[in-house]
Automatic annotation (TrEMBL):
Residues 668-677 have a biased composition (Polar residues). Residues 558-592, 629-677 are annotated as: Disordered. It comes from Camelus ferus (Wild bactrian camel). It comes from the Eukaryota. The gene is HID1. It holds the Pfam family Hid1. This is Protein HID1 isoform X5. One of its GO terms (cellular component) is membrane. Coiled coil: none annotated. InterPro entries: Hid-1/Ecm30.
Length: 787
């Protein structure tokens, strides 16, 4: 039966209790009860929500000076965190928080003007924002003495109360356990408010902005700037190792980490903004004045995105990059004392944050690539990719890691930086090698392709595109990496693999492009690769003589049924793995994971059809995810998307082949995904004739006789002598005219925006288990699956 809203004694019992925790609230208010009240006494649920918001508004108004008021605010906050998901899961209730409440005027307190009344959602969000800068509750009071009157929360300039030093703020306040915990509870409520997005099915046109985020990040929130800065600085200043005392995290609990996790989650959700459909502010190069670049045009209405895009001072970029690199590297920190350092768990949120920074702030991206600091981001990403490759529940982590590397690889500087020797010895389950960061990248990619699980096959295009993008700048590959690349070519060019799916031959084109780039632009230092190509020359001859008649095609496909997987480790000398490394493990049975929407450009694995994505392929191969650009003589990039295709002596295979052949195969690849694939002679001929083999064939024609002669003359079986000969050899004037370098730059689109939204909310859903905010509610954005 309905309880009157005026019955304070009844309603006050919900928040008057002194010693509850958020876990208690979840235990005391079971899901079944909330749903029963929603169905049977809707007016009581409405009153409970309204009253709880009213208490938060009152707390924000008064400044929460007494312990009792603070307790009421925390209890209301916990109660709303508990109840909101059950409001969102019911379509009939979804508009409830956006309806107006009598007497809550926009223009001031208690104006009973319904025209001007604020929706409940707005009152709630503004109250949370005020409470996050409430002296003695969530920030330190600036009062000189207790005699002074309490600071008036309305005249308070929250920019003076930013939580942590860093971007735009030099003062680091005394840490306070109580303030951190109170902030954390309010931020948890904020993420819960934003989580309405989880209850809407994924829509390819990501135009559906989240009204909660939209309002909170608008000029209506007078704390938008200090809150954005507080969240960013709190995340980037956090040092989980803390004072370097071993085992310190076991002696005293780290109250900062829960706040940092919550701050990272609020940040990535507020920055969920489709950059493909909005005008991003351009940057004008001024580096004076405030932390935000005021000379820019206004940019997006989402102020968090706006502020992020306008950060421009070098010291701010350095602070952000160092902070994110420190946190991403934390799980890799190896000490001689087992479990002696704290391991953070929020690396996926950090990767999304790093992605947003690069996406919305091009100056930050260029800063990252300006020095070898980018390698401090690369190494942890390669570690996570290698570690997660066998675990089906971490396929989203694999995708975001690869997307970040694809974005970075579109810039020349990234390829140049990879030449730095790799000396850090992070224990990874990969062969030991001596070489550069480029070698590390190739060795890890080879490992993912040859020993990852089936659902990673859609990523192969992306992985090889990254290698193609960096290849013109790689000065000297190690023998280990050179052999890995040749092993991939050998595996991908077996006839049955080439004929068994419509898009498999793209992988061969990518690898040939890598070899051509290195031979044409970096021949001098790459004797290891040249030697590997000479040793495996039969692979290139087989490609040149690939059968195209139907009987041969059918025979190759018959062989498929008897042959082992082409990508096994056979034929690739593995060698010992690094000391201290553990093999990549599959997910524990019963591990929860969330489904992801299909990524534009990543069709499901050939022939398999079911990659666990919802089966909607928006792509036409990697083309959909990247834009082709040509590197001019002066090193600048020119987009090829609208320019006429150039014919070079090499027949510009990379530009011609994707544009023609890949388009006509879009239909074929969809047929292949649904299992009705029948290769024809015409189809094989259409791409075989475009295989860019001329450069490699010329190299073999010149060098093989010379190498054979040395072997015969000197009776050699020793590699070092041949390598010495190749090091001093030259092919100047003997090779075809170098082809223009082609870079495929990552291109955002609404499909990728939707993918990021699904991934981000899936991570947040799975990471919030104590208390389990969304568990067992009817989310629609993704499916929860057990591995």
């Amino acid at each position: 039966m309905p309880v009157e809203a005026t019955d304070d004694a009844f309603w006050d019992q919900f928040w008057a209790d002194t010693a509850t925790s958020v876990q208690d609230v979840f235990a005391l208010v079971p899901a079944a009860e909330i749903r029963a009240v929603r169905e049977e006494s809707p007016s009581n649920l409405a009153t409970l929500c309204y009253k709880a918001v009213e208490k938060l508004v009152q707390g924000a108004e008064s400044g929460c000076h007494s312990e009792k008021e603070r307790q009421i605010v925390l209890n209301c906050s916990r109660l709303l965190t508990r109840v909101l998901p059950y409001i969102f899961e019911d379509p009939d209730w979804r508009g409830f928080f956006w309806s107006t409440v009598p007497g809550a005027g926009r223009g001031g307190q208690g104006e009973d003007d319904d025209e001007n009344a604020r929706p409940l959602a707005e009152s709630l969000l503004l109250a949370i924002a005020d409470l996050l800068f409430c002296p003695d509750f969530t920030v330190q009071s600036h009062r000189r003495s207790t005699v002074d009157s309490a600071e008036d929360i309305h005249s308070l300039d929250s920019c003076e109360y930013i939580w942590e030093a860093g971007v735009g703020f030099a003062h680091s306040p005394q840490p306070s356990y109580i303030h951190d915990m109170n902030r954390m509870e309010l931020l948890k409520l904020l993420v819960t408010c934003f989580s309405e997005a989880m209850y809407l099915p994924p829509a390819p046109d990501s135009g559906n902005t989240n009204p909660w985020v939209q309002f909170f990040c608008s000029a209506e929130n007078r704390h938008a700037l200090p809150l954005f800065t507080s969240l960013l600085n709190t995340v980037c200043a956090y040092d989980p190792v803390g004072y370097g005392i071993p085992y310190n995290h076991l002696i005293f609990s780290d109250y900062r980490e829960p706040l940092v996790e919550e701050a990272a989650q609020v940040l990535i959700v507020t920055l969920d903004h489709d950059s493909a459909t909005s005008t991003s502010p351009t940057v004008d190069g001024t580096t004076t004045g405030t932390a935000m670049d005021d000379a820019d045009p206004p940019g997006p209405e989402n102020l968090f995105v706006n502020y992020l895009s306008r950060i421009h001072r070098e010291e701010d970029f350095q602070f952000i990059l160092k902070g994110i690199a420190r946190l991403l590297s934390n799980p890799l920190v190896q000490t001689y004392l087992p479990n002696s350092t704290k391991k953070i768990q929020f690396h996926q949120e950090l990767l999304v944050l790093f992605w947003k920074l690069c996406d919305f702030n091009k100056k930050f991206l260029f800063f990252v690539l300006k020095s070898s600091d980018v390698l401090d981001i690369l190494v942890p990403i390669l570690y996570f990719l290698n570690d997660a490759r066998a675990d089906q529940s971490r396929v989203g982590l694999m995708h975001i890691g690869v997307f970040i590397l694809l974005l970075l690889s579109g810039e020349r500087n990234f390829g140049v930086r990879l030449n730095k020797p790799y000396s850090v010895r992070v224990p990874m389950d990969i062969p030991v090698f001596t070489g550069t960061h480029a070698d590390l990248l190739i060795v890890v990619f080879h490992k993912i392709i040859t020993s990852g699980h089936q659902r990673l096959q859609p990523l192969f295009d992306c992985l090889l595109t990254i290698v193609v993008n960096v290849s013109p700048y790689l000065k000297s590959l190690s023998m280990v990496a050179a052999n890995k690349l040749l092993h991939l070519l050998e595996a991908f060019s077996t006839t049955w693999f080439l004929f068994s799916a419509a898009q498999n031959h793209h992988l061969v084109f990518f690898l040939l492009e890598v070899f051509n780039n290195i031979i044409q632009y970096q021949f001098d230092g790459n004797s290891n690769l040249v030697y590997a190509i000479i040793r495996k020359r039969s692979v290139f001859h087989q490609l040149a003589n690939l059968p195209t008649d139907l009987p041969a095609i059918h025979k190759a496909l018959q062989r498929r049924r008897r042959a082992p997987e082409p990508l096994s480790r056979t034929g690739s000398q593995e060698g010992a793995s690094m000391e201290g490394s553990r093999p990549a493990a599959p997910a524990e049975p019963g591990t929860l994971k969330t489904s992801l929407v299909a990524t534009p450009g990543l069709a499901p694995a050939g022939g398999g059809g079911g990659c666990g994505y919802q089966q909607q392929v928006w792509g036409e191969g990697i083309d959909k995810l990247t834009e082709k650009s040509q590197v001019s003589e002066d090193g600048t990039l020119r987009s090829l998307e609208s320019a006429p295709q150039q014919n070079s002596a090499e027949g510009s295979p990379a530009a011609e082949e994707p544009s023609q052949v890949w388009r006509e195969q879009r239909r074929l690849s969809n047929a292949s995904a649904s299992g009705q694939w029948n290769p024809t002679s015409e189809w094989v001929l259409s791409w075989k004739s475009k295989l860019p083999l001329q450069t490699i064939m010329r190299l073999l024609q010149v060098l093989v006789p010379q190498v054979e002669k040395i072997c015969i003359d000197k009776g050699l079986t020793d590699e070092s002598e041949i390598l010495r000969f190749l090091q001093h050899g030259t092919l100047v004037g003997l090779l075809p005219v170098p082809h223009p370098i082609l870079i495929r730059k990552y291109q955002a689109n609404s499909g990728t925006a939707m993918w990021f939204r699904t991934y981000m909310w899936g991570v947040i859903y799975l990471r919030n288990v104590d208390p389990p905010v969304w568990y067992d509610t009817d989310v629609k954005l993704f499916e929860i699956q057990r591995v």
